[in-house]
Amino acid sequence: MSHQLESIKSAFTLTSNGMYKISSSLAVNLVADRIEQELLAQDMVIFNRIDHAKGALKIGLVMAPTELIIFGNPKMGSLLMRDNPTIAIDLPQKILITEEESKTYIYFNDPQFIAKRHALMGEEKAITHIHQVLVTSIYNAIAQ
């Protein structure tokens, strides 16, 4: 693994519940736009983008800006599901961008955590690739 990728990965915090977290000074919608573009550049398919704050307003609730990007690579995901269909509960991948205390935070599930949860064996290369796409896309999106 390259030194640059290791440096990028060290900017993320792994939480106790299997999610990575990183902060940004950029607005939620800008970060979401940039992440979406980075994912598309990595040949990912964007299945959906949900603006939860906008949805909350429709029912009369106010919440902090919160967006969810649902994305994946159907070929890779299908191969993983063929190995263990239960991984479909965690696919496609998701990235959450939210505002907490006037700061933007980006969260995503640790691919290693997901692989362990579904007892995927022999898929280290695919899991590592997914992790690299996630950290690189997010890091590039929030770089100023």
TrEMBL record:
Gene3D superfamilies assigned to the protein according to its UniProt record, in alphabetical order: TT1751-like domain (3.30.310.70)
Name of the protein in its database record: DUF302 domain-containing protein
Highest taxon in the source lineage: Bacteria
Domain DUF302: 50-111
